[in-house]
Sequence to fold (966 residues):
Amino acid sequence: MEPNRPTRLPAAGIHEIAARLGPIFWLAVIWLAMVLFAAVTAGYWPVPPPDRMDWAQLGAAPGAPLTPAGTPSAENPQAGGAAHWLGTDTMGRDMVARLIFGARVSLAVSICSPAIGFLVGGLLGCLAGYYRGRLDAGIVATMDVILAFPGLVLLLVIRFYLGASLTNLILILGFLTIPAFSRVARAKTLGLTELEFVQAARLTGAGHLSILVREILPNVVIPLAVYALLVAAFMIMAEGALSFLGLGVPPPTASWGGMIAEGREALDTAPHVSLIPAGVMFLTVLALNLIGDGLRSLLEGRAHP
Amino acid sequence: MTATWGEHLLVTHLGRKLLRLLLVVLAVTAVTFLMVHLLPGDVAYTIGGETATADDIRAIREALGLDRSMLAQYRSWLGRLVHGDLGRSYLTGEPVLQAILSRLPVTLELLVISQLLALALALPAALICAYRSGSHVDRLISTGGFATLSIPSFVMALLTIYLFSVKLRWLPATGYTPLQAGVWANLKSFVLPALSIALIEWVVLMRVLRSDLITTLQQHYILMAKAKGLPPWRILLLHALRPSAFTMLTVMGLQVGRLLGEAVIVETLFALPGMGRLLVTAIYARDHLMVQGCVLVISIGYVTVNSAVDMLYTLLDPRIRREAAVGT
Amino acid sequence: MSPPRSTPLLAIGDLSVALPAMQGCVRAVDGVTLSVTAGQAVGLVGESGCGKSMLAKALMGLLPREAEIGPTSQIHFDGRPLLALSPRERRTITGRKMAMVFQDPMTALNPVMRVGRQISEVLRHHLGLDRRAARQRALALLRQVGVSMPRRRLDHYPHQLSGGLRQRVAIAIALACGPRLLIADEPTTALDVTVQAGILDLLARCQKAQAMAMLLISHDLGVVAGRTQRTAVMYAGRILELAPTRKLFGKPRLPYTRALLDAMPRLANPPRTPLKAIGGQPPDMTHLPPGCAFAPRCRWARGRCRVETPPLESGRGGDHDHRVACWYPLEGA
Fold:
């Protein structure tokens, strides 16, 4: 019961932890692993290329057969598989292909952007919480100014000035997560510096750098990483919203938000064009939220909700 | 004596918050000013657009005072800002402030209606969940709420369109009727947009209210109310709800910022002529001064609302009130 | 002198209440049988945690949801079986014919509701009075319980009142509908010593004036003395001694009661008489010993006490009024 070092994973066996997280958690992990696998192997799937338009099959229902007609390069029409398993979008492009290539965008954003926020925001937060004083006040004030703009509005505007590309998108989204990460890291660090083992380290004459690296960072990294999962879920939604407004990755690159937007006009005739990517996005966001929430309860030693 | 001391502390505290708000607002104006002036290339050309004539460019240069130092430019821009001059749209020639003011009521109406709808959903759900906490109903609603938070707002908007306008054909998906054309018709054009915001927002309110209600229901005065022989609904509504609603009302205020973001999407999707749509249209059209004006107004509104809620919270915080009461 | 022995107003029969605990469950109330005649004041005395509050909550129907009442338990009030009633029927009795005053007046009143409304609410709900009539009645009630400036107090919030005043308001709420039974659960424990006697005398006065029965619960024998006709002593969920209050004080037969009396300061004692604390710890309700629960702390305990649980019986002298649950009751003082 004497917690010298807090927020380490409980010293229970792997099996016990696995059981405590519950089956829903593991279903979420499996779904995420599948999405990741699909995104990595997207080029090798037996489906038509994501930008090939099948003019005879505009907005075709799931399971529609592939037709060679209208394909711009008809040299080998069967190369892309046997059927449009999830149908085609309003421009006759294969849904499966666009979904798995769209997963690349979503995952790139949800991995890289939080990573930027994690590194920069985490570091700033730790420094602010550890050194306090003017440095702290300055960092907090800067973050307050960033937070003074409603997130999505700032996103739209920066995106407007910087122009459209996946790299820009990742950088902007990453920049916007810095305040949130720094707040979490700062709060954790503030709590830690009060604790005995940090005080003890200081008394034994350890330098600031050594205390930060050895005592503070290890204890901040894990909760911050769990927080990053929740941010990643939010990033997918934000990228989707931008693409939905036509301000995300430029076409014809497939992205889930863009797919949902394209199907908007055909909701009455071909609802699957919007609803399938919407469902995939929902499940992915939900999976990230479930995993983040499960790990957080585990860290905090609470019972699973 | 203690009360005056407490009041003194309170005033100092509020004063500090007010000062902080002013500084943040100033920083916001600086950032939005820089947004336009740090554009790559000649600002006048960027603002004027590709069709600008040499005269136009000269006019813009003069209007913006581009030959002076950045600080001087900022100062004069700020001066004009204080007088409500945000420049003119290079697309329509309309004064930016006037365009914003004409769109603002639509966004405000959308926000108010969606918050009310969210409250109407959250209130009964939280009461049921808290009264029967741990039951199947509670777990069902709480889990459903958790899942709902994973639905992006534009997907929720799409789902409401799909359900209510494509499948059930109750309401048209787009179209806006101004208030002058009849209150009822006007409200009708807000139903789906507000619903698509409220269907997510209620979860946030429900979670806060539920947890506060559960704490309140363990208080002695609830036991006392039961000992009076009052029926459960009366205890929940008259005795438990009011002391529990405080945090939720604060959250409602703080959510305004997030909802402004949602409004951008929802207004675009439902073709509502609000601030959000104005901003997105301006972005598409590269109408710089309009973008700048929108960002400025939205952000200042956002920080002001947040600070106001924060200060109200301090003023109304039961602990502070109690301390003052003990002092008298 | 004793009231007619027809049906008592309140008849508790073999009442048991079990609460789930960390390990297994706790029998907070264990086979309590007790009756209260109309107009009579009965004291219920025991250390904290002995189950007396749980007993009061069971009577009022305020047990937590996870509490379980034993299958053979019965509570009859005014001839009606309370445990067999639906919650809705039960609520027509609770707060109207049977009311309760709680221990801590600081937390028992709703902090965000005016005092007047907290009183008139009961009147409007149970008696169907309109707003004006309820307010008039609330004013009269505040006067009756001795609140000064009652008209102003009606519009006050609880935090504007002192502890003693708040308890008077709580009593006014309890008395509002003219109950036939008032349960007062440690009504003065949370109050300043200076106002305790005032509150207790108010309760006794109201009880006599309205010919109302009262169950006065306390950990302090001194509170019960002189204000009740009969007194029950509770220990570890059971009633171990039940006697007319005067007899109980004069000639206690239960070693535990004797120990409680010895621990009380008395004017009759010569100066510098040391007070005797009761040795040992109050019982751990999750691990009760077999036999008499008081045996581990009892000076007179013998082998049988640690094996068999003694029943609550009238004494050998044919004294029906004085019942004790002890294998070796004390003879004479």
In short: Residues 95 and 222 of chain B are 57 Å apart (CA to CA). Residues 2-82 of chain B form one domain.
